[in-house]
Amino acid sequence: MKFIKRFLLIMLVLGIGTLAFLYWGVYERGVWAGKVLSVSEKGMIFKTHEGKISMESFGALKGTSPIAETRDFSVEKGETEVIKALEDVALKGERVNLHFIKRYASFPWRGDTKYFVVRVEQATQ
Questions:
Q1: Angstrom distance (rounded) from CA 18 to CA 21
Q2: Which burial class, exposed, middle or buried, applies to 51 when counting CB atoms under 10 A from its CB (0-12, 13-18, 19+)?
Q3: How far is CA 104 from each of CA 75, 111, 116, rounded to the nearest angstrom?
Q4: Are the CB atoms for 118 and 82 separated by under 8 Å?
Q5: Burial (Cβ within 10 Å: 0-12, 13-18, ≥19) of residue 106
Q6: Residue ranges per domain, the chain?
């Protein structure tokens, strides 16, 4: 009986530790450069802020047309300054640098993606 209690306690601690790591752990940090296409609030039960950025990459050959790649991202609920900045640049169509973090897992109350924008800065041209 004593062994079962210890085993269950160890499993509970490991489970909580794993969930904490998945929730707060950061897998990647980086910067995307491009134009913000959209920013919206989505969700029926959990309202989250989601967006899309368009990044143009140019071919190695002269005269080739740019290839537009888009990425989806989320913004955490408490980041009101980031949400406001994203809305402003989306309306103006300005080129920006989005500093992001990628988490290990996504949770429905946090956002649709694993990518979270943490800072917006105007791109120098």
A1: 5
A2: buried
A3: 16, 13, 11
A4: yes
A5: middle
A6: 26-122
What would be the CATH architecture of the domain defined by 26-122?
Beta Barrel (2.40)
pTM of the model: 0.81
SS3 45: coil
Question: Under the phi-then-psi rule, with left for phi > 0, alpha for psi from -120 to 50, and beta for the rest, what region is 111?
Answer: left
Distance CA 21, CA 78 (A): 20
Per-residue pLDDT of the chain (125 residues; tens, 9 = 90+): 888 899 999 999 999 999 999 999 999 999 998 899 999 999 889 999 999 998 876 554 555 566 678 899 999 988 899 999 999 999 988 889 999 999 999 898 998 899 999 999 987 65
- C-alpha angle with apex 10: 24 to 26, nearest 5 degrees? 15
Q: How far is Cα 39 from Cα 34, in angstroms, rounded to an integer?
A: 14
Three-state DSSP class for residue 94: coil
